[in-house]
Specification:
single chain, alpha/beta, TIM Barrel, eight-stranded parallel beta barrel, 17% strand, binds erythose-4-phosphate
Length: 217
Amino acid sequence: MKFFVDTADVDAIRELHDLGMVDGVTTNPSLILKSGRDIIEVTKEICSFVKGPVSAEVVALTADEMIAEGRKLAAIAPNIAVKVPLTWDGLKTCKVLTGEGFMVNVTLCFSANQALIAAKAGATFISPFIGRLDDINLDGLDLIGDIRTIYDNYDFQTQILAASIRSANHVKDCAMIGADVVTAPPNVIKALASHVLTDKGLEQFMKDWAKTGQKIL
Ligand code: E4P
């Protein structure tokens, strides 16, 4: 499974990238706001060291304007995936931009039918939002499973990019279901390494080692 980092925080991306944890990056208008940076400038900086897909989201609402914005974003670097919302205009934009050879990430997906129609429009990635479904007492992971089944039934090549990941368990469950990619905030990726028994075991080893009076270096 590929790991994308869901942030526009360059330092956080770099830290995970240096550990080989970054197969790509996703951003959105809220994450650009949080970064306090200019979208073009920060996306260019991310693409200077991340070689996998870097999603940059359009903000227009009509297909013509989305296509123009998408072309401008795609010109930042060859590994840009233009992110478009799952609206009819977004799907038109997806069809045009994939036809021009660009990667397109169709975002804000909340149903299996939306994922089906995005695949029909040629999406490179579909982004179902797990956490936001959980927030309204629906099951985001069921959606990932449904999309996996549909895409496998018909051999759609669109990659399932599980988004709105809120916990380490979400990552594990997506891996079990067979999502192609998860995009998670840096703190969730770091949380994958944590276990209370690891901490407890290490504490005991340190106490016992001190009692030996030995040194390795
Ligand atoms: C995905 O591409 C989105 O940027 C993101 O995962 C949304 O996550 P949120 O629901 O935690 O804002």
